[in-house]
Design goal:
Length: about 180
């Protein structure tokens, strides 16, 4: 199984990227799946507008990302939250990809995650992602909010220190295999 994983964030210090990377490692260790973790910064493009699309078409980077999604068997996405919303970096890419195919996630099985330093764990962003999932071709198998990331994840060892959260994450990841 080939899995594409990314954080819906463009922060170089993204804890959502740390979480999605850890989830990918856990999935590989438990199932042998091949996980490719990508960085949305590698797909940065101008803000979507119909004028840009009409004048220049769909940017190559957007087409490349859409192709990576199509080539994957499944996806793991961890959503950062900015001011109670999805990040602009993610939303911009979603807007561009929707011009290729409204269901740009191509009905791939997905695990949706979110985390934050606080107790909300990115709940608003994850709820927005879950709400849009049927409209953009996501087959959501499981979702998980991980609050207070800094207190349950050891950056030095790269390990989840809270066994209950680790067990919940492992259970969510197993839904990709079933």
């Amino acid at each position: 199984m080939n899995v594409l994983a990314f954080a819906a964030s463009n922060s170089s210090k993204s804890i959502n990227k740390t979480l999605v990377t850890y989830a990918g490692q856990l999935l590989t260790a438990n199932t042998g799946a091949q996980v490719e973790v990508i960085d949305l910064n590698d797909y940065e493009v101008a803000i979507y507008s119909i004028d840009r699309e009409e004048n220049g078409g769909i940017p190559d980077k957007v087409q490349e990302l859409h192709g990576k999604i199509g080539a994957a068997d499944a996806l793991i996405i961890s959503f950062a939250e900015h001011n109670g919303n999805l990040t602009v970096a993610y939303k911009n890419l979603a807007d561009w990809m929707s011009r290729i195919d409204r269901h740009f996630y191509q009905n791939k099985p997905c695990i949706l995650l979110s985390t934050s330093p606080g107790g909300g764990g990115g709940r608003n962003a994850l709820n927005l992602a879950l709400g849009s999932a049927p409209h953009i071709g996501m087959d959501v198998k499981a979702s998980l909010i991980v609050p207070r990331f800094g207190s349950i994840f050891d950056k030095e060892s790269g390990q989840m220190t809270d066994e209950e959260t680790k067990a919940k994450l492992s259970k969510a990841l197993k839904t990709l295999i079933n």
